[in-house]
Design goal:
heterotrimer; A alpha/beta (411); B mainly alpha (342); C mainly alpha (293); B: mainly alpha; MetI-like fold; two-stranded antiparallel sheet; 15 helices; 4 strands; globular; C: 293 residues; mainly alpha; 79% helix; 0% strand
Chain lengths: 411, 342, 293
């Protein structure tokens, strides 16, 4: 977090940024009301979009961690409370299923000349979202510790285990590995990463039937268990903040961790220059002889609500197109790995970009993935604690998921 | 009091509760009996920054058509209540038939989400409630004996555990009990066990949560009892003293009976609040070892992108029933008081 | 009574003082630790290496050049407009307390003086209402509120908080009113007062201790609420607790925990003043012989 964007937020919140640049955006009138999650990259986009405010055009935003629970009811009202909801792969589905956002093809043709092909999230033929940034969990490692242990940066999870063993045997660290293994969403996300790295499929093709109770699922769980042996015994309580603190304090040497946290890990806060200076990143490791990095790719993007007037929809699209521009991306190069053409990636983007180039898969965009994710987060905990075997944990997950999916009408 | 007067006195309060609590409860109970329509699924090619893939999506138009015909969804009776994520009748039946012994059977049941949560919820309620009442009462008695100059600051300090937002209170405490934190390290030193971690094992996590619960709720009981102590009739107390009653006897035979309505009140509120325990579980990242009914509801509503309203409604209804059962003894007592007074 | 007890039983007095001191230590230590830590940087207060860093301020010195820093406070109040949330919280808590107590005293009084069965059942219903987890209720409000276009306003949250708080207020005040002897208002009515006049002239003057205690809890509920205010308010109308939560960051992005810690410490100041002020009310108001049995 730099002082610059904090100031920008402050000014924005004070409403001082009702600039006069609306002519630059070319909107005559309309109201732009954004609902989004609460983090710097999204603040930057909204701040830039606020330049379009002025004569007859208002740009307001509600940027809160509660956005997902607000989105469906807020966009269901007519007129909708918000004209745009910023979504990620996982939060797009509820809007699609309830038919709350409009296709953007026509707007792109008329006003979105600078939007590159890879930014367009197409559902069938319709572009429903314009993505502007990417994120993934990838490898963070301590160059100096690995050198001391005499090993190369790991390329596979098998290498990671070997590295951890070497570091531990040389008594360089008691718990060389760390990871976001907190029971619930985080732990399930680790399984999703690992299972995709093994080449697994979550559902039977074309249906909502779960298909994780197989050797790949067992292998993914066993790998997680092996890794956890080299982690602090509290690992089931570790969220991103704990993992970041572990890395920054020099308590752990290797983690598969969010790329968006890179800037905060290597900055001059919370760590010594020796530690922060030797933390390096790389693509996520592969696993079990697989060829693709065991991680999931995420994007953030903007949508335009359905239940709003044509003028507001137009204003929203134009303002957000202005917000998610190359100019904005290059002004905030460290806030995210931007997908916008003309953006020059910094050193922190290597982990995400390499994972992407090596063919890592996006987080599945199926409507019932969230249900499976929740079921995983609750049911594989017993396995991690050593209270049941992998097959039982996966069978339990499928059972819990099926009950939820039946309730939602998917099965 | 005549009906008319009663009506006007109670109206504002009753109206607020009716609109914002009673009606939602009715709709929640109704909702728990329904499940959503079968989604009409279609396979489409999705493309994005990371390439294209064939994926399934909901045909929103076709699903909306179904919803228009029956807005509540498909009637499901009590099936949501009995499915695996709630009371799990089938799974229990299967476990009963297959488990070789009672221990195995109990293990099977406790690995089901609802029963796992229920076991912690009940344990938490059973442990925390009595501790809070007794501790709160003792502190109130002790504070009441202090010189009045000290009472103000002492009351403020006693309230601290309650007034700090649980959100941050538990966050700070969570770090303090970390094996590198001030309390965690002290406990390690006291127990002479450098590997001891309050977060890693289920029993220690439970105890941590109990202690936090007691610490957090005791001020509530204390304040209520303290206020009640101010109303203990002086003359009764003095005559008891003249009769030569010891301090203990005075507390036992004068103070306690006088405070009994407040004891019932604190007991009721505490039973209920403890049964709804939620915030400490999230604050202490304790999901791996302890879940509660309220946590399940939260997880259904917020865990996935799509909230499971029906499932959350069913768990909420079960919570209501659970609380009612728990409160029955207290309620019977209140009923007796009520009819006696009437 | 205080003086006599301590003269008669010195052992008891010592025990009870020791007990109070122990309790105060337990109650205050985490808060004092937080207060102290709010002047450090995150690397010290939440140190993974050694908790002694929080005392010595190793990282704080390395990062800011002195052992104490006001960065957290500056960040929360100046850079993130915490004052705005403080004002919103002020508005919300004031109205919630006033309205809750008004509704609650009327209702609680009526319930304590009615001998009909429905009074009992109203109390029971209120109790059951209270058992409903707030998050379920709040999720149910969202759609109607958006449709009626009343979502996001302070007034809406105030009404919801009052309603959610009503069962508790009603029960608590009902218990207090029951401890006020019936003869008091009934004799007033024999003298020709209406029920409301009796309530106003006789009950109101003696009810303050109970009302103030109940008010304290209404206050805390509104002050500390997260479930309602986090989902029912827009960003401009955000109250303190959701604002503090927003300092904590998300899975993907680091927040600024020290802002949150400083904000929490600042948020206890008004409570300190209030409690000190009303503590005197409770004690003096009551011992002046409010309740004559």
């Amino acid at each position: 977090m730099t002082i610059a964007w904090k100031t920008a937020i402050t000014l924005g919140a004070l409403g001082l940024s009702t600039g006069v640049a609306s002519a630059a955006c070319g909107i005559e009138s309309g109201s732009v009301r954004v609902l989004s999650n609460d983090f710097p990259a999204l603040h930057d986009v909204v701040e830039k979009a606020k330049e379009c405010a002025g004569d007859g055009v208002t740009v307001t935003a509600n940027q809160t961690a509660e956005h997902e629970s607000l989105a469906v009811p807020a966009l269901s009202a007519n007129p909708a409370e918000y004209t745009s909801h910023f979504v990620a792969n996982s939060s797009l589905q509820p809007l699609l299923s309830n038919d709350l956002i409009r296709p953007l093809n026509d707007y792109i043709e008329t006003y979105g000349k600078n939007i590159s092909e890879r930014q367009k999230i197409k559902i069938g033929d319709d572009v429903m979202v314009i993505a502007f940034d990417a994120n993934a969990q990838h490898l963070f490692f301590r160059e100096d510790i690995l050198k001391e242990a005499g090993i190369e940066p790991p390329k596979t999870y098998e290498d990671v285990l070997a590295a951890a063993k070497a570091i531990k045997d040389k008594s360089l660290m008691a718990y060389p590995l760390t990871g976001t293994y907190k029971a619930g969403w985080n732990l399930a996300e680790e399984f999703v990463n690992m299972y995709l790295g093994m080449g697994g499929e979550f559902f039977e093709p074309g249906s909502a039937k779960p298909a994780i109770d197989n050797e790949k699922g067992v292998a993914a769980l066993e790998m997680m268990k092996s890794l956890s042996a080299y982690m602090n015994p509290d690992y089931l309580t570790f969220d991103s903040n704990s993992v970041q603190a572990e890395l920054e304090s020099g308590s752990a040497a290797i983690a598969n961790f969010w790329g968006s946290r890179y800037g905060a890990v290597v900055d001059d806060e919370g760590s010594t220059p020796e530690i922060a200076g030797s933390i390096k990143v790389a693509a996520a490791p592969t696993v079990g002889g697989g060829t693709i990095p065991a991680t999931t790719l995420w994007w953030d993007g903007y949508t335009v609500a359905k239940n709003i007037s044509e003028a507001d929809a137009k204003a929203t699209f134009i303002a957000l197109d202005h917000g998610a521009s190359a100019e904005m991306a290059n002004a905030n190069p460290d806030a995210a790995v931007w997908l916008i053409d003309g953006y020059e990636p910094g050193p922190g983007a290597i982990g995400v970009l390499d994972s992407m180039n090596q063919g890592a898969k996006p987080y599945p965009m199926v409507p019932y993935m969230g249900l499976l994710h929740t079921a995983l987060g609750a049911e594989i905990v017993d396995f991690m604690k050593g209270e049941e075997d992998a097959a039982k944990a996966l069978a339990d997950t499928e059972a819990a998921y099926s009950a939820a999916a039946r309730e939602k009408g998917f099965l | 009091m005549p009906h008319r007067t009663f009506f006007w006195f109670i109206l504002p309060s009753a109206l607020a509760m009716l609109v914002f609590i009673a009606l939602p409860i009715v709709s929640i109970v109704v909702q728990s009996l329904y499940v959503e329509h079968d989604r009409v699924l279609v396979e489409v090619e999705n493309c994005g920054p990371f390439g294209c893939s064939k994926e399934v999506r909901v045909d929103a138009a076709a699903t909306a058509e179904l919803q228009r015909e029956e807005p509540l969804g498909r009637f499901n009776g009590l099936a949501t209540y009995t499915n695996r994520n709630h009371l799990a009748f089938d799974e229990i039946g299967a476990a009963w038939a297959n488990a070789p012994d009672i221990a195995e059977f109990a293990g099977e049941i406790l690995s089901l989400p609802f029963y796992r949560a229920l076991s912690f919820t009940l344990a938490y309620t059973a442990v925390v409630t009595p501790f809070v009442i007794v501790l709160g009462f003792l502190i109130a008695l002790a504070v009441n004996m202090l010189p009045s100059l000290l009472k103000g600051p002492v009351i403020f300090v006693s309230l601290l555990p309650m007034i700090i937002t649980p959100l941050i209170g538990s966050l700070v405490l969570f770090w303090m009990i970390d094996s590198n934190g001030v309390i965690g390290a002290t406990i390690q030193a006291l127990a002479n066990d450098p590997a001891l971690s309050l977060k890693a094992s289920a029993p220690l996590t439970w105890i941590t949560l109990f202690v936090y619960g007691i610490w957090h709720s005791t001020p509530f009981a204390f304040v209520v009892f303290y206020a009640g102590l101010q109303t203990v009739p002086k003359d009764t107390m003095e005559s008891a003293m003249i009769d030569g009653a010891s301090t203990f006897e005075r507390v036992r035979f004068v103070t306690l009976p006088h405070l009994s309505p407040l004891l019932v009140f604190v007991g009721l509120i505490q039973l209920m609040d403890n049964f709804r325990v939620f915030e400490p579980i999230v604050g202490f990242n304790a999901e791996a070892n302890a879940t509660s009914l309220s946590w399940i509801i939260f997880n259904d509503l917020r865990g996935a992108g799509t909230p499971l309203f029906g499932s959350a409604a069913a768990t909420s209804t079960l919570t209501l029933i659970g609380v009612s059962i728990l409160l029955t003894p207290v309620l019977i007592r209140t009923w007796r008081d009520f009819t006696r007074k009437g | 009574m205080t003086a006599q007890t301590s003269r008669k039983a010195p052992i008891l007095a010592i025990l009870s003082t020791a007990f109070i001191v122990l309790w105060l230590l337990l109650a205050a230590f985490p808060f004092l630790w937080t207060l102290w830590g709010s002047f450090k940087v995150q690397g010290d207060f939440f140190s993974r290496q050694d908790w002694m860093n929080a005392l010595s301020g190793t990282r704080t010195i390395a990062e800011t050049g002195s052992a104490f820093t006001g960065q957290g406070y500056y960040g929360a109040w100046v850079l993130n407009d915490f004052w705005r949330s403080a004002i919103n919280t002020g508005i919300v808590t004031f109205f919630v307390v006033v309205i809750s107590l008004t509704f609650g005293t009327l209702g609680g009084y009526a319930l304590s003086r009615s001998s009909f069965r429905y009074a009992f059942w109203i109390l029971i219903a209120a109790l059951i209402f209270r058992a409903m987890p707030h998050i379920t209720l709040v999720s149910g409000y969202l759609l109607p509120f958006f449709q009626l276009n009343i979502w996001g306003y302070l007034a809406t949250s105030i009404v919801v908080l009052v309603a959610i708080n009503q069962p508790f207020t009603l029960w608590m005040l009902h218990s207090f009113f029951k401890s006020i002897p019936k003869d008091l208002d009934e004799s007033a009515m024999v003298d020709g007062c209406s029920r409301f006049q009796a309530f106003r002239m006789v009950i109101i003057p003696v009810m303050w201790p109970g009302v103030i205690t109940t008010g304290l809890f209404s206050f805390l509920l509104a002050y500390n609420d997260f479930a309602v205010t986090a989902t029912l308010l827009t960003q401009e109308n955000q109250t303190m607790v959701p604002k503090i939560a927003s300092f904590l960051g998300t899975t993907q992005v680091q927040g600024n925990v020290m802002y949150a810690v400083s904000a929490v410490v600042s948020a206890t100041v008004p409570l300190f003043i209030l409690v000190l002020f009303f503590q005197r009310q409770i004690v003096s108001g009551l011992t002046a012989g409010a309740v004559k049995g």
